[in-house]
Amino acid sequence: MSVLPIVKYGDEVLRIPTASVGEIDASIHKLIDDMVDTMYAAPGVGLAANQVGVSLRLMIIDLSVGRRPGELHVCINPEIVEVEGAITEDEGCLSVPDFVEVVTRPERARLRYLDRNGEPREMWGEGLMARAMCHEVDHLNGMLYVDHLRGLKKDRILRKIQKLARAGMW
Ligand code: NI
After folding, report:
1. From the candidates 91, 107, 122, 136, which is the catalytic residue?
2. Are 19 and 55 in contact (CB under 8 A)?
3. Which of 69, 103, 127, 166 holds its CA 20 to 30 A away from the CA of 87?
Protein backbone atom coordinates (compact mmCIF):
# COMPACT_ATOMS: atom_id res chain seq x y z
CA MET A 1 0.00 0.00 0.00
CA SER A 2 1.19 3.51 -0.64
CA VAL A 3 0.45 7.12 0.10
CA LEU A 4 -0.48 8.90 -3.14
CA PRO A 5 -0.06 12.61 -3.95
CA ILE A 6 -3.30 14.58 -3.48
CA VAL A 7 -4.14 16.91 -6.36
CA LYS A 8 -5.01 20.48 -5.48
CA TYR A 9 -7.57 23.07 -6.52
CA GLY A 10 -6.79 24.15 -10.09
CA ASP A 11 -6.07 20.63 -11.35
CA GLU A 12 -8.49 19.81 -14.18
CA VAL A 13 -9.13 16.23 -12.94
CA LEU A 14 -11.09 17.68 -10.00
CA ARG A 15 -13.49 19.32 -12.48
CA ILE A 16 -14.33 16.29 -14.61
CA PRO A 17 -17.35 14.24 -13.44
CA THR A 18 -16.01 10.77 -12.60
CA ALA A 19 -16.95 7.57 -14.45
CA SER A 20 -18.83 4.74 -12.73
CA VAL A 21 -16.76 1.83 -11.48
CA GLY A 22 -17.47 -1.34 -13.49
CA GLU A 23 -15.94 -4.57 -12.27
CA ILE A 24 -14.56 -4.32 -8.73
CA ASP A 25 -11.29 -6.12 -9.43
CA ALA A 26 -7.83 -6.24 -7.84
CA SER A 27 -6.86 -2.86 -9.30
CA ILE A 28 -9.89 -1.24 -7.61
CA HIS A 29 -9.01 -2.93 -4.31
CA LYS A 30 -5.43 -1.65 -4.60
CA LEU A 31 -6.73 1.87 -5.34
CA ILE A 32 -9.01 1.68 -2.25
CA ASP A 33 -6.11 0.53 -0.02
CA ASP A 34 -3.86 3.32 -1.34
CA MET A 35 -6.63 5.89 -0.82
CA VAL A 36 -7.10 4.73 2.78
CA ASP A 37 -3.34 5.11 3.43
CA THR A 38 -3.40 8.53 1.75
CA MET A 39 -6.42 9.77 3.74
CA TYR A 40 -4.99 8.62 7.09
CA ALA A 41 -1.57 10.12 6.30
CA ALA A 42 -3.03 13.51 5.31
CA PRO A 43 -4.86 13.28 7.80
CA GLY A 44 -8.44 13.63 6.59
CA VAL A 45 -11.94 12.24 7.17
CA GLY A 46 -12.82 11.72 3.50
CA LEU A 47 -11.20 11.27 0.10
CA ALA A 48 -12.53 10.93 -3.45
CA ALA A 49 -10.65 8.98 -6.14
CA ASN A 50 -10.26 12.03 -8.39
CA GLN A 51 -8.33 13.69 -5.55
CA VAL A 52 -5.57 11.15 -6.22
CA GLY A 53 -5.95 11.70 -9.97
CA VAL A 54 -8.17 8.69 -10.74
CA SER A 55 -11.44 9.76 -12.39
CA LEU A 56 -13.64 6.97 -10.99
CA ARG A 57 -16.79 7.15 -8.86
CA LEU A 58 -15.29 5.91 -5.62
CA MET A 59 -14.87 7.59 -2.23
CA ILE A 60 -13.93 6.74 1.33
CA ILE A 61 -14.98 8.28 4.65
CA ASP A 62 -13.69 7.62 8.17
CA LEU A 63 -14.67 10.25 10.74
CA SER A 64 -12.31 8.59 13.25
CA VAL A 65 -9.33 8.90 10.83
CA GLY A 66 -8.45 5.25 11.49
CA ARG A 67 -8.72 5.44 15.28
CA ARG A 68 -11.89 3.35 15.63
CA PRO A 69 -12.37 0.01 13.84
CA GLY A 70 -15.51 -0.29 11.72
CA GLU A 71 -15.74 3.42 10.92
CA LEU A 72 -14.15 3.21 7.48
CA HIS A 73 -16.77 3.42 4.74
CA VAL A 74 -15.73 2.48 1.20
CA CYS A 75 -18.40 3.80 -1.17
CA ILE A 76 -18.39 2.73 -4.82
CA ASN A 77 -20.72 4.49 -7.29
CA PRO A 78 -22.34 6.47 -4.45
CA GLU A 79 -25.44 8.62 -4.86
CA ILE A 80 -27.16 10.91 -2.36
CA VAL A 81 -30.78 9.72 -2.54
CA GLU A 82 -32.44 11.81 0.20
CA VAL A 83 -31.60 14.84 2.32
CA GLU A 84 -33.23 16.57 5.31
CA GLY A 85 -32.62 19.86 7.06
CA ALA A 86 -29.72 22.26 6.73
CA ILE A 87 -26.73 23.10 8.91
CA THR A 88 -24.03 25.72 8.44
CA GLU A 89 -20.55 24.87 9.73
CA ASP A 90 -16.85 25.03 8.96
CA GLU A 91 -15.62 22.88 6.12
CA GLY A 92 -12.21 22.16 4.61
CA CYS A 93 -10.78 19.97 1.86
CA LEU A 94 -7.47 18.14 1.35
CA SER A 95 -7.38 19.60 -2.19
CA VAL A 96 -7.71 23.14 -0.77
CA PRO A 97 -5.21 22.80 2.09
CA ASP A 98 -5.02 25.31 4.97
CA PHE A 99 -8.38 26.94 4.19
CA VAL A 100 -11.64 26.59 6.11
CA GLU A 101 -14.94 28.27 5.25
CA VAL A 102 -18.51 27.88 6.44
CA VAL A 103 -20.77 25.94 4.08
CA THR A 104 -24.45 25.05 4.43
CA ARG A 105 -25.12 21.33 3.96
CA PRO A 106 -28.03 18.98 4.67
CA GLU A 107 -28.30 17.96 8.32
CA ARG A 108 -29.06 14.38 7.30
CA ALA A 109 -28.38 12.58 4.05
CA ARG A 110 -29.01 9.07 2.78
CA LEU A 111 -26.31 7.52 0.62
CA ARG A 112 -26.74 4.55 -1.72
CA TYR A 113 -23.55 2.78 -2.85
CA LEU A 114 -21.71 -0.50 -3.30
CA ASP A 115 -19.24 -1.61 -0.65
CA ARG A 116 -15.77 -2.95 -1.54
CA ASN A 117 -17.26 -6.39 -2.18
CA GLY A 118 -19.86 -4.96 -4.56
CA GLU A 119 -22.73 -5.43 -2.10
CA PRO A 120 -25.46 -2.75 -2.39
CA ARG A 121 -25.75 -0.66 0.77
CA GLU A 122 -27.53 2.40 2.10
CA MET A 123 -26.74 4.54 5.09
CA TRP A 124 -28.09 7.66 6.75
CA GLY A 125 -25.50 10.17 7.83
CA GLU A 126 -26.10 12.97 10.31
CA GLY A 127 -24.12 16.13 11.06
CA LEU A 128 -20.45 15.69 10.12
CA MET A 129 -21.18 12.37 8.37
CA ALA A 130 -23.85 13.97 6.17
CA ARG A 131 -21.42 16.82 5.43
CA ALA A 132 -18.63 14.39 4.49
CA MET A 133 -20.97 12.34 2.27
CA CYS A 134 -22.18 15.44 0.40
CA HIS A 135 -18.64 16.90 0.15
CA GLU A 136 -17.20 13.68 -1.33
CA VAL A 137 -20.11 13.11 -3.74
CA ASP A 138 -19.60 16.72 -4.89
CA HIS A 139 -15.97 15.82 -5.67
CA LEU A 140 -17.12 12.86 -7.77
CA ASN A 141 -19.42 15.22 -9.69
CA GLY A 142 -16.54 17.62 -10.39
CA MET A 143 -17.49 20.12 -7.67
CA LEU A 144 -15.48 21.60 -4.81
CA TYR A 145 -16.74 23.16 -1.59
CA VAL A 146 -15.50 26.58 -2.68
CA ASP A 147 -18.16 26.42 -5.42
CA HIS A 148 -20.75 26.77 -2.63
CA LEU A 149 -19.22 30.07 -1.47
CA ARG A 150 -20.51 33.37 -2.75
CA GLY A 151 -19.33 36.95 -3.13
CA LEU A 152 -16.46 38.30 -1.06
CA LYS A 153 -15.77 35.00 0.69
CA LYS A 154 -15.27 33.22 -2.61
CA ASP A 155 -13.18 36.08 -4.09
CA ARG A 156 -10.96 36.11 -1.00
CA ILE A 157 -10.14 32.40 -1.03
CA LEU A 158 -9.55 32.29 -4.81
CA ARG A 159 -7.28 35.37 -4.62
CA LYS A 160 -5.22 33.77 -1.86
CA ILE A 161 -4.86 30.54 -3.86
CA GLN A 162 -3.79 32.49 -6.97
CA LYS A 163 -1.22 34.35 -4.90
CA LEU A 164 0.19 31.08 -3.50
CA ALA A 165 0.25 29.61 -7.03
CA ARG A 166 2.18 32.61 -8.38
CA ALA A 167 4.70 32.19 -5.55
CA GLY A 168 5.07 28.48 -6.46
CA MET A 169 3.61 27.51 -3.08
CA TRP A 170 0.45 25.73 -4.30
NI1 NI B 1 -12.50 17.59 -0.40
Report:
1. 136
2. yes
3. 69
- 143 DSSP assignment: -
Cα–ligand 1 centroid distance for 113 (angstroms): 19
How far away, in angstroms, is 132 Cα from ligand 1 center? 8
Going from the Cα of 140 to the center of ligand 1, the distance in angstroms, rounded, reads 10
Instruction: For residue range 22-49, list pLDDT tens digits in order.
Output: 999 999 999 999 999 999 999 999 999 9
What range does the domain containing 49 cover? Answer: 12-166
Give the CATH number, domain containing residue 94. 3.90.45.10
Residue 7 included in any domain: no
* Burial environment of residue 120 by CB neighbours within 10 A (0 to 12, 13 to 18, 19 or more): exposed
Q: Is residue 4 part of a domain?
A: no
Report the domain count for the chain: 1
53-86, pLDDT tens digit by residue? 999 999 999 999 999 999 999 999 999 999 999 9
- Whether 136 is a known active-site residue: answer yes
pTM attached to this predicted model:
0.97
